[in-house]
Amino acid sequence: MKGTMLRKTLYALTAASAVALAAPATAEPLKVGFVYVSPIGEAGWTWQQDIGRREMQAALGDKVKTQYVEDVPEGADAERVIRDLAQQGNQLIFTTSFGYMNPTIKVAKQFPDVKFVHSTGYKTASNVATTNARFYEARYVAGMLAGKVTQTKVVGYVGAYPIPEVLQGINAFTRGLRSVQPDAQVRVIMVNSWFDPGKERDAALALLDQGADIVTHHTDSTATVQAAEERGKHAIAYHSDMSKFGPKAQLGAVTHHWGPYFTQEVQSVLDGTWKSNQVWGGFKEGMVALEGFGPDVSDEVKAFLKQQQDAIAAGTLNPFAAPIKDNEGKVRLAEGALDDKGLNAMDYYVEGVVGKLGKS
Is residue 237 a contact partner of residue 292, using CB atoms and an 8 Å limit? Predict the structure, then answer.
């Protein structure tokens, strides 16, 4: 009797084991980390990055698990946060600010099995890719928009740092502006910060006091748009649609779109096909747009801007086609168009920008 019971028990255990072995193992979700340079807030650079993260999460569902750390200063803090995300088991980490470049490269050497994607930088490794958007394409068309609306022919530009990415935007905007208003000028104030609403507001107000009737910005907060709203002037928002903060002021917004790219990169890790590369997408790839048009932009102007956008996407219009002169009269390009190397080495203001680099 005991032997029969024992045989039955062994059979039951063996059958249960067979069922367990036959059942497909539930794959663990891919852990994906994000490092953000400013608070997520309700608009701006980090807001757009987080929209991209959420779009990717929605597209891939339970195959991924994401986490983020916001408001991380560039430098030693960034290195610590990136390393911590790698130690927590994140297999792909997006580091989303230019100043994270060297910390990303350093941590990547310590975690060769982790993949990293760095936004707006240029250094790569076998496990580090870079990505950027051709913001300057939309900036050029936004400059045209400003040229169609300005009455004073003075536009103010609140910049973050005098690095190539920011200079591309200022210069493309100026060239677009002057393509429709040849004698218009752009005045720039650098605030030496990606996110400092107080400094951004002060800079915007100073530019309005200098005669600008339109202001724009390459900074992360909504302060510039809000300053224009308060003064009854116009603004062109950056990173995201900020019409909520300047419903009368906003003429349009240069916006960034990261969801499809993030989804593509994460899917390639899931598929085992991820490779280090350098992606730089513009209108054609859907990574930038000019949208959020305000009530003071006519349908005629919108149609004109759409034509310019389509021409850039098709490659028949280049914001940096020769001739290019800097604002001191030096010819920077006599023929052709600036290539990517030239764009990434940009260290000058073009004709039409008032002032010298490093000075307001």
Answer: yes
Give 3-17 pLDDT, tens digit per residue: 444 333 333 434 444
| pLDDT on residue 359 | 53
Range of weakest confidence among 181-185, 272-276, 285-289, 354-358: 354-358
pTM strictly above 0.85: yes
Mean pLDDT, the chain, integer: 92
β-pairing verdict for 30-35 and 92-95: parallel
CB 100 within 8 A of CB 37: yes
Average pLDDT over residues 64-82: 96
pLDDT in tens, 292-301: 999 999 999 9
Identify whether the C-beta of residue 99 lies closer than 8 Å to the C-beta of residue 45: no
Burial 295-306 (b: 16+ CB within 10 A, else e): eebeeebeebbe
Q: How far apart are CA 104 and CA 58, in angstroms?
A: 26
- Dihedral over alpha carbons 77, 80, 81, 84 (to 10 degrees): -170
Rounded CA-CA distance 266/273 in Å is: 10
Measured distance CA(199)–CA(214) in Å, rounded: 18
* Cβ partners under 8 Å of residue 138, min gap 6: 254, 255, 282, 283, 288, 289, 290, 309
Alpha helix segments (H runs only) across the chain: 2-22, 45-60, 76-87, 101-110, 135-149, 164-180, 197-209, 223-231, 259-271, 299-314, 340-344
Q: Name residues whose C-beta falls within 8 Å of residue 240's C-beta, 6 or more positions apart in sequence.
A: 43, 44, 47, 48, 51, 253, 255, 256
* Cα 345 from chain centre: 19
